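Treating backbone geometry as a discrete language has practical consequences that deserve illustration. Part of our work consisted of pairing the sequence of a single chain with a tokenised description of its backbone. We regard such an encoding as a compact summary of how the chain folds. The amino acid sequence and the backbone structure tokens for this protein are reproduced below.
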Amino acid sequence: MSEPAMPEGTLDARYSDPRAEPSRWEEVREALDTAQTYWLTTVRADGRPHVTPLIAIWDASALHFSTGEREQKSRNLAAHRHVALTTGANALDEGLDVVLEGEATRVTDTARLEHLAAAWLRKYGEVWRYEVRDDSFWHPGGGLATVYAVRPAAVHAFRKGPTYAQTRWTLD
């Protein structure tokens, strides 16, 4: 499945080096595709934030993650679907940090889940081999896991040193 063309990113001059150019979508997409760890921010029923690390797959213009039904993030998503997913480098003066904001939508289509399970296996190896059961992923170590897709409503890229740049994409 090919990805639609992205609009040009907008450079925020307030937080960018005067010589900076906007980050290119291709480098942001690569960061979303190749990252090993992401941080998911959800909102608890009482409004407090909940942040947790997880693994994810960029596929078909969306970031996909899974969660067990008893996990806090699953309970949060039952009440609030708006999330932020973050990835990047843990360095002050190098790398690219990316924040993707959007709404988490459950994936239940069997063919889509099988495609995503194969993508998880390719990216993360045998320890993350999933079977598709009951509109979910199933893993012998954790049971059933609900799969979500987050299509970006907004993306922020923070390029660090030597030319700092903050770029934003707003999507429909």
